[in-house]
Amino acid sequence: MSEPALETPPDDVPAIRVLLVDDHPVYRDGLAVLLRSIDGLDVVGTAADGLEAVAAAEALSPDVIVMDVQMPRLDGIEATRRIAARHPDVGIIVLTMSEADETVFDAMRAGARGYLLKGSGQDDISRAIRAVAGGDAIFGPRIAARVAEFFARPPAAADSVAFPQLTGREREILELVAAGRSNGDIAEHLFLSPKTVRNNVSNIFAKLQVSGRAEAVIAARDAGLGRGSDGTTA
Fold first, then answer.
1. CA angle at residue 200 from 199 to 205, to 5 degrees?
2. Are 27 and 62 part of one and the same domain?
3. CA–CA distance from 13 to each of 10, 39, 40, 137, 219 (Å)?
4. Which of 12, 114, 144, 182 could potentially form a cystine with 139 if both were Cys, beta carbons 3.0 to 4.6 Å apart?
5. What is the distance between the alpha carbons of residues 60 and 79, in angstroms, rounded to a whole number?
6. Residues linked to residue 41 through DSSP beta bridges, in sequence order
């Protein structure tokens, strides 16, 4: 009997389109075979480096990309940054051997919404793909512990420009989040789809290194955003 995380989804739910990116063909092909065996997941393609990943994201329109970090030609962090900027609806999970703080937070700042170590099991990877496809951010237990440690440190001095890691659209959405707008209100206000808003909000949480909406609002208001009722600063 399958584990609960791997139960067969309803027939009317489309399969999650997954792109795998890794420069090691044995690992890449093995993971592709594994994921293709799971109901509800559809591995639509693979790529061997960051440049191939950027091109494949454009050509194949995946829902989720599972991305290695250390690759030739273009590494996974820069590939993530380029894909997230052009395709904010695509959820990116970084899957790597490294759990160093610098790599974790570089991936988050680049726009990754998930971070797992390569030792993660089938259930963990499948669960992460489903979560990220639904607009959530997810991190493995050891990575989550490092994120918690980061938040326990004294805050760094604020930059002269608040949140320079955000794109213009993400900053616009954060302004409205800080003003107390719901995702539905933001979608209507900016003429965006609810999914686009949800994914942008998840990207904002990852880039700001916050655990949820309340923490993002606090960070934004501390930086002077969202103080007016209509989403403008007072």
1. 95
2. yes
3. 6, 11, 8, 21, 36
4. 144
5. 15
6. 16
Model confidence at 155: pLDDT above 60: no
DSSP E strand boundaries for 9-118 = 16-21, 41-47, 64-67, 91-96, 114-117
Q: Are 147 and 164 in contact (CB under 8 A)?
A: no
- According to DSSP, residue 115 is labeled E
Count of CB atoms situated within 10 Å of the CB of 148: 11
Structural domain including 41 reads 13-150
Tokens of 25: 């063909």
Report yes or no: 55 and 48 within 8 Å, Cβ to Cβ: no
198 CB-side CA count, 13 A: 13
- Give the number of C-alpha atoms closer than 13 A to the C-alpha of residue 149, restricted to the C-beta side: 10
Judgement on whether residues 218 and 185 belong to the same structural domain of the protein: yes
What is the C-alpha separation between 79 and 97, in angstroms, rounded? Answer: 17
- Please check whether residues 145 and 172 belong to one and the same domain: no
Residue where the block lists tokens 């512990």: 145
How many separate domains does the chain show? 2
Which DSSP helix (H) or strand (E) runs through 202? helix 194-208
Residue where a domain stops, chosen among 150, 181, 199 = 150
Read off the pLDDT of residues 107-147 as tens digits, 9 standing for 90 and up: 888 899 988 888 888 888 999 999 999 988 887 666 666 66
Across the chain, how many H-helices and E-strands are there?
Answer: 10, 6
DSSP 114: E
